[in-house]
Amino acid sequence: MAENLLIKMEHISDKGNNVDATPNIYSYYAVLDALAKSSGNGSDSTAGIRAEKILERMIKRGVEPTTRCYSRVLAAHVKSSSPRGEDRAWDLLERMIKRYNLKSTKEKLKEDETRNNNSRYYNNGNDNDFQLNTICFNTVLHAFAKKGNSEKAMEILARMDEIGKNNENAHPDEITFHSVLQALSLSKNPQKVIMARDILRRIENSHISGDWAVIPSTRSYNMALNVCAASTNTNIAHGSENGLKNDQIRKEVVSIAFEIFENFRMSKYAQPDEYTYSTLLKICRQYIPRKQWKSKEEKSSSASPPPYLKQANDQRKELVEYVFSQCCDDG
Length: 331
Known about the structure:
Elements (H helix, E strand, L loop, with lengths): L1 H14 L9 H14 L8 H14 L6 H13 L5 H26 L23 H13 L3 H15 L9 H13 L5 H15 L11 H12 L4 H4 L6 H23 L7 H14 L8 H4 L7 H4 L1 H18 L2
């Protein structure tokens, strides 16, 4: 309905019958917002494509899209049921980055000459209403996070870091880092536990360096612990006995998980909750093999179990008792 009305306004304006019916920035934004909202239920697979076509019509008609217009198109893409919605949103975001870089070049030129004398460098609109911001990046980042695409999530974070050096409106915030942690928890990246620890360390250190937009919260620590628990490597998670390498990986995961937990307990900004302790117990179950987890060959022979399995029960019991004790102390 809104799209049809917009087309009718454009048609009347093009025929010259009524200049007052010419669509302006508010007209286009209203329709883009409607498309973003209509795609929210996931039943409309074309909302993002239609929104981007409207964006293209705006530019052709000399109406420069504002940041809010772009953000609604990004939202329409990622909320739609299209299987390539997040890819289309990323393509649009890259074009936004190019426009931002062009705008930065224009502003440098403007320092030497007035805008009137350099009109050839400017579009037929007010570029002052366009600015890359954190919300635009987070919209696309969250879409990839839900698919477990940690590589793209880290790429977007890197672009935010690069642009954020000269644009305080595009700095990563708590939502940014939480989306990266979500992507890691769903990914199959073999380094995801180490990467999650590094992201959490960055969250912990951000406010120390003066970035108060990022403060470690209970959710931050719990999401990092969830990455440790959400291993897709069945050789590790289910106690496969493929030698020393898997044993070392198990120990590293447990070590990182309890490092996160100890920092969590010492944090001034967050405190463990019931989810924290249930996740830690899950990690103990997944990564510390029980003595009875033996291969068929070991079960049929009188050979002693591998050394790491001999110590497993004691370590498992010790850590579980420690977690339970801390849980009781925290009420």
